[in-house]
């Protein structure tokens, strides 16, 4: 397998605060990698460094064989908020990344329509963002990230602003959309179940300073649907991830993760 | 999967209203009725309290005087409209360009802002006589005054509209390989447009104030001069008739801006579900 993304001894400090401390991991091509950790573990910072939007203080980030030294091309990005342009329709918003680069073609339009249909937004191509629910807006944002079929997709807590029920459904939708595209994904979340459900690999991070605590390979069969939540291996893996986070939390003397075994999606 | 989406039904109904909006006809009717009641009360109430005609003429008298002097009104309104619109147009261009400079060149902001803030604190009307000294009694001094009064709201709103873009959108554009020209036209300018139309609604009457004050101070043409001449002759109905001309002009201007917003800014919260 080819390596799509390599993070080597990456460190980031903001003034005297260490946000990320010597993080190292890699993502194979077509792999779904999640970074899980409580708030303040530097996972968003790490993602922004991969995108080249923030420079690391030390260490090396390699994407597609090239060292990152500025905003990378060929990466799709999904933020916590949908950040759709209110004056653009769904179709036009999905096409924005092509429009702003001045390379929109008929093929892009067709792909945009396909993605919109795949995301369950068919019929809403001409709707404005304010006519869509939060979940629908975020699905449009995911379509936008997929439009140029980038080899790497970066997602920064994309479901963080949604309610729990929408959030669970969105995770399954993302699994479906991803299965149809198979780009390499780097997915930041603080939901353990979401990470186990979606990922091939989970990077567990500890807070203050952000360190890689554990790297968990998820060997659950795909495609994964709701039944996977009751799979004994799912429970086992979730426990391992939770354990990694909790050990860190205890060191931090503050428990940030609810360890209620009945809660499927830990917030 | 989308079937249970709570906003779905609502969203699909939003583009076309299911039933005709009742306020579409009711609201204008209500406004017209209110104006009619006001005019009737004026027409028949004022004689009861014995207010002399040179203080407050009756609406019928004003209407009559307006019709009588229509040609005079139009000529003078044309003069005032020209200086007002010229001042407004220059303010629009200069205001937006200044805002661009401030948004794109960080250093300019700290240099330009104290001057603008200081300048804005001067009542422009108070320095109007100075403009007459500098630029004479012609159209220039009026245009300059209209321009100065209209400039600030346009500049401030343009600065907000062009500058306050969500950082995530700018990051997204950078990752997509967007040129700064396209980010300007597709993001900043689009974002700024409603801010600028809002500013125009404020700046337009202000520019008119500039023109009319300019005419009060010097010159022999324009609605401001007509009002002064009418006042000198104690022709109160003509003063009111001139005010009516201005009102029609301002209302038409605001209406054109509103039409533009309805046509091109359909996505705005204020334009939704009309």
Please write out the topology.
The complex is a heterodimer of chains A (267) and B (274).
Chain A: E1 3-14, E2 17-28, E3 32-36, H1 43-51, E4 58-63, E5 66-67, E6 75-78, H2 90-94, H3 96-100, H4 106-118, H5 134-146, E7 152-156, H6 164-181, E8 184-189, H7 192-198, E9 201-206, E10 211-217, H8 232-251
Parallel strand pairs in A: 3-8, 3-9, 6-7, 7-8
Antiparallel strand pairs in A: 1-2, 1-4, 4-5, 9-10
Chain B: H1 6-13, H2 23-45, H3 59-68, H4 70-104, H5 106-120, H6 128-135, H7 139-163, H8 167-175, H9 180-217, H10 223-232, H11 236-264
Helix pairs in contact in B: 3-11, 4-5, 4-7, 4-9, 4-10, 4-11, 6-7, 7-9, 9-10, 9-11, 10-11
Could you give a quick summary of the protein structure above?
The complex is a heterodimer of chains A (267) and B (274). By secondary structure, chain A is α/β, with parallel strands linked by helices. Chain A has helices spanning 43-51, 90-94, 96-100, 106-118, 134-146, 164-181, 192-198, 232-251; strands at residues 3-14, 17-28, 32-36, 58-63, 66-67, 75-78, 152-156, 184-189, 201-206, 211-217.
Describe the overall structure.
The complex is a heterodimer of chains A (267) and B (274). With 267 residues, chain A is of the alpha/beta class. Chain A has a domain at 3-74 and 150-251: P-loop containing nucleotide triphosphate hydrolases (Rossmann fold, 3-Layer(aba) Sandwich). Chain A has helices at 43-51, 90-94, 96-100, 106-118, 134-146, 164-181, 192-198, 232-251; strands spanning 3-14, 17-28, 32-36, 58-63, 66-67, 75-78, 152-156, 184-189, 201-206, 211-217. In chain A, the strands form 2 sheets. Chain A has a 6-stranded mixed beta sheet, sandwiched between helices. In chain A, strands 2-1-4-5 form a 4-stranded antiparallel beta sheet, with helices on one face. The relative contact order of chain A is 0.17. The model of chain A is unreliable at 253-267 (pLDDT under 50). Chain B has 274 residues and is an all-alpha fold. Chain B folds into 2 domains: 1-50; 58-271, MetI-like (MetI-like fold). Chain B is 77% helix and 0% strand. Chain B has 11 helices and no strands. Chain B has helices at residues 6-13, 23-45, 59-68, 70-104, 106-120, 128-135, 139-163, 167-175, 180-217, 223-232, 236-264. Chain B starts with 5 loop residues before the first helix and ends in a 10-residue tail after the last helix.
């Amino acid at each position: 397998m080819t390596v799509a993304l390599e993070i080597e001894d990456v460190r980031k400090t903001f003034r005297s605060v260490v946000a990320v401390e010597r993080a190292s991991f890699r993502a194979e091509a077509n792999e779904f990698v999640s970074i899980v950790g409580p708030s303040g573990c530097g996972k968003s910072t790490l993602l922004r460094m991969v995108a080249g939007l923030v420079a690391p203080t030390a260490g090396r980030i390699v994407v597609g064989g090239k060292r990152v030294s500025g905003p990378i091309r060929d990466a799709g990005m999904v933020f916590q908020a949908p950040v759709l342009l209110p004056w653009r329709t769904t179709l036009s918003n999905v096409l924005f990344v092509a429009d702003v680069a001045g390379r929109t073609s008929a093929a892009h339009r067709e792909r945009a329509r396909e993605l919109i249909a795949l995301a369950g937004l068919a019929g809403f191509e001409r709707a404005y963002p304010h006519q869509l629910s939060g979940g629908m807006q975020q699905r449009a944002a995911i379509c936008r990230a997929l439009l140029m079929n980038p080899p790497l997709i970066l997602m920064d807590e994309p479901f963080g602003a949604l309610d729990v029920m929408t959030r669970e459904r969105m995770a399954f939708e993302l699994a479906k959309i991803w299965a149809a595209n198979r780009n390499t994904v780097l997915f930041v979340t603080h939901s353990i179940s979401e990470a186990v459900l979606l990922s091939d690999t989970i990077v567990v991070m500890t807070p203050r300073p952000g360190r890689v605590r554990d790297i968990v390979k998820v060997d659950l069969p795909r495609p994964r649907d709701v039944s996977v939540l009751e799979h004994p291996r799912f429970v086992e893996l979730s426990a391992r991830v939770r354990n990694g986070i909790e050990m860190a939390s205890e060191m931090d003397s503050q428990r940030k993760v609810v360890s209620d075994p009945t809660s499927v999606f830990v917030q | 999967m989308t079937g249970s989406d709570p906003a779905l039904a609502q969203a699909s109904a939003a583009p076309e209203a299911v039933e005709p909006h009742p306020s579409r006809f009711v609201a204008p009717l209500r406004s017209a009725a209110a104006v009619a009641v006001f005019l009737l009360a004026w027409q028949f109430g004022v004689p009861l309290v014995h207010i002399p005609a040179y203080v407050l003429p009756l609406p019928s008298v004003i209407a009559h005087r307006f019709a009588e002097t229509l040609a005079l009104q139009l000529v003078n309104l044309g003069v005032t409209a020209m200086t007002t619109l010229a001042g407004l147009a220059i303010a629009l261009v200069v205001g937006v360009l200044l805002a661009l400079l401030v948004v794109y060149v960080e250093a300019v902001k700290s240099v330009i802002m104290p001057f603008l803030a200081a300048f804005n604190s001067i009542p422009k009307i108070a320095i109007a006589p100075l403009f007459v000294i500098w630029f004479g009694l012609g159209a220039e001094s009026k245009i300059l005054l209209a321009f100065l009064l209209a400039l600030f709201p346009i500049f401030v709103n343009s600065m907000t509209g062009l500058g306050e873009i969500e950082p995530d959108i700018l990051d997204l554009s950078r990752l997509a390989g967007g040129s700064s020209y396209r980010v300007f036209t597709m993001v900043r300018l689009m974002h700024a447009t409603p801010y600028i139309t809002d500013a125009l609604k404020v700046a337009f009457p202000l520019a008119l104030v500039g023109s009319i004050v300019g005419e009060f101070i010097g010159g022999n043409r324009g609605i401001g001069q007509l009002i002064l001449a009418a006042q000198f002759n104690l022709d109160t109905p003509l003063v009111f008739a001139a005010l009516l001309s201005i009102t029609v002009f301002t209302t038409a201007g605001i209406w054109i801006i509103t039409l533009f917003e309805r046509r091109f800014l359909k996505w705005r919260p204020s334009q939704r579900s009309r």
